[in-house]
User: What shape does this take?
Amino acid sequence: MPDAARRPEEPSPVVVIGGGPAGCAAALEILRAGFACLLVERGAPDRDKACGDMFVPAAAEELRALGVDLADCSFASAAAAVDLFDDDRLLWRVAYADAPVWIAPRRALDQRLRDTLGAGARVMHRHVAVGTRIDADGALVVALRDADGVSREVRSAAIVIASGASAALARAWGVDGGGLNFPALSAYLPGKSIERPRFEFSDSVPGGYRWVFPAGAMGTNIGWCRLAPGERNDIKTAAGQRFAALGLDDAALVWRGGAASVWSGAGGRWHHEAGIVVCGDSAGLVDPLTGEGLTAALKSGRAAGAAVAAYLVGGRNVKALEYYSAWIRAAFEARYARSPVREVWRRLSRLAD
Assistant: This one.
């Protein structure tokens, strides 16, 4: 635990806005450094997310670093291969012999992460952060509103913004990374099951793909991700037509709408010197080719938490936050650089250069 004499003067906790993978990863790193933490989550416990629920090996590894092994989670299932289709034609079966991909419903996984935080963190469900500011004495203030419309304010030594693709809070501080928001839809289809996860590419899905993933007791997770400009209603119509062609009753599906804030390469700052950092979707870190964002959320969340801890231990040393922004830029430029494998995915997705 850091020397108490070196902690910030005010006793207010670090506030983490967003209780998904990025926010939980940040909170766990802050707690490990010995600081108290308030986690603000807009949803109720076990809230579902518009997501394919797939954790690639890199994301599963990040979870293990946080103390959550999907192999020990009864709600998770492993897959040793993933199929890539061009409509109904199998193109490629990608094997994951050494480290499988995992399917874990977000409602269960996110709650497991929040439960992992323990006594050092206070979790406030069903609260929305509606604004942030610097008070007259230099303290950060987070304005909150609960599900009943009751407002309150929390003073804080530092803030981590991990509120998903809705990056209004990050934009207000100029630290959103310039992410581009593209729409996605997903739904659970009860009573249906497939052997392994599959991605479907088609001329009817330019700049994106469909997914059909096994989801255990939930049935099958089906969805549509667009990695180019477009309206959510457009992909909902196309999704309904496609799944009707497969003999699935679109009318019986409860669609969950969402958005992915993908890496644009335009960002330069993911911190503010007042003691604010942003991570995950709020930072525009989703893979612009695949739409995979869980690895980026977990990886950047851990780094954000470590940066805030270093900032506080160092007596509000802004260098720790500057290093975080430099790390984000270098790490994700390298991660999303063009490569032969990524070029294959680009072509399959019908994405323009």
